[in-house]
Design goal:
alpha/beta
Length: 396
Amino acid sequence: MRIIALINQKGGCGKTTTAVNLSACLAHHGKKVLLIDLDPQGHASLALGVSPEEISFRMASVLSQEAAIEEILIKGPYPGLDLAPSNLRLAALEQQLSGLPQREERLLESLRRLPWSYDLIVIDAPPSLGLLSFNALRVADEVIVPVDASAFSLHGLNRLLDTLDLLQERTGQTIDVSALATLSSKTRFAQEVVEILDKRFAEDDVNRLHGGRLRTVIRSNTHLREATRSGVPIVHYDPHAIAAHDYEALAQEILQREREALLPVQGAAQEALPGFSPLAGGALFTWIGPEDVAIAGEFNDWIPDRKIYSIPGEREGENVQKWLPFAAPRSAYRLRIDGVWREDPYNPRRVEHPIGGSSSVLELSDSVALSLPEKQPSHASVVAWKAPMSKTGSLD
């Protein structure tokens, strides 16, 4: 699962429009997507035809811990797309939480308790770099910064990078940042903005901008404004519109990054035995059976399946394979199997869990890794522990 935050402190740069239409296009491709409206204006909710004022519980209820996030979700306003709505009550939350410990981790805590997983979570952050945006950044794996044809958008990108430096200093968290040229006109200044972005991302000393500039450019379009006003994503309002093609291209670009990330490990994954296997600097988890399995551990802040890629199998339902790209030599983790938290049945190593029970321990330092298709050398080795199986071959 990947968590993508849309952030720019400058308003009017297409941030909310992109969050909504990117989410809808990803869902249109069969992905299970959650859109979190973290902007007090509630425009992402309105853009999906949802009036936040008519809903009892919203994101303010979640961050104030009055409700769990699954209680406020609007399931499937469009196929494959769920919404966590927001409204103006969220604006008072920063003052309400002032002085409270871990106020920047309220969203993190709520996602840890989410009882099911998504392929992607998209967060529409507010046009500011306060508490709400910090909550979004704390859970994000990637940040997309929409930049329109204005100097203020570029300034917003610089301010965001300063905030990410602060986040890394406090938590050790690093986030890939990408820039997206939005609502671009054909003016000379608009072209200059794109050129500035390309130059900025090409600079050797700018190592914070790992994501690069997204190739897609979102063009201004009357049908896009009409779709937003009607509360319908452009891919459903007018799939032939220019903006629909642009957001479709953006969704394809996001999905292509996932395919490219998995490409080096798919060949080796086919040879894996049940259990975990150190692979390509991370860990491959393989289970036999049709169960729904999610992984949460120290490597992903205990958010189920965050930072973890699902590897599509040749015969769906026969096994589950998930790849964690980066892992420390030793990490505690748990599995959620068909909604029930438990230790990894393939792994006998245990450690006491902070809130009770025990967790499994991922050890990479004393094993031999699966070889990649190119037979790259590695220090670790395949370790597979057979768990008790049912007669059907699924996890017992």
